[in-house]
Amino acid sequence: MRVAAQSLQAIGWATMANEDAMLVGRVLAGETEAFALLVERHQRWAINLAYQLLGSADEAEDVAQDAFVVAFQKLGQLRRRANFCAWLRKIVLHQALRRRRQLARTAPLEVDVGDNGASTGHQTAVAVHQVLRELPDHLAVVLVLRELQALSYREIAAALGVPIGTVRSRLHAARDAFRRLWQAGR
Prior knowledge:
Helices cover 77% and strands 0% of the residues. The chain is an all-alpha fold. It starts with a helix and ends with a helix. The protein has two domains: 1-109, RNA polymerase sigma factor, region 2, helix turn helix motif (Rna Polymerase Sigma Factor, Chain: A), CATH 1.10.1740; 117-186, Arc Repressor Mutant, subunit A.
């Protein structure tokens, strides 16, 4: 049963990659309106990834928008059109980490927790983002990609341009650091 579900998922990803490749081809052929379809297909996860690194919905939307602008400007540099999603992930990560460093140099990011009636789940999410912000970029990004985005080690290695062994060691260090910070805050 699990194998069948994985096969269906693989077929879904392959279909999506083929559709992305077709849309990229249309954009490169001068049909710039097709890029709006790529944005529509990938905007939600791009914002989600940025949010997981930044902890701010407004910042995440800005980062995703910036990433799509960069992607549009550099679309001609994409080597394999079917890899648009992975290529866009790299751009979103780069933009989010750049913004994260900018925020670290300025005032600390405030996360709105709402009134005292905020749900426990929301409070936990806010606490997780606060701990993630305390981690160094290279640890926070592997933790977000593995634990929150559920990427494989291979996908993380490709997104970061590092060997799988580096992903494994960073992930181990990230989990340890997160655990220490979490326990210290509790």
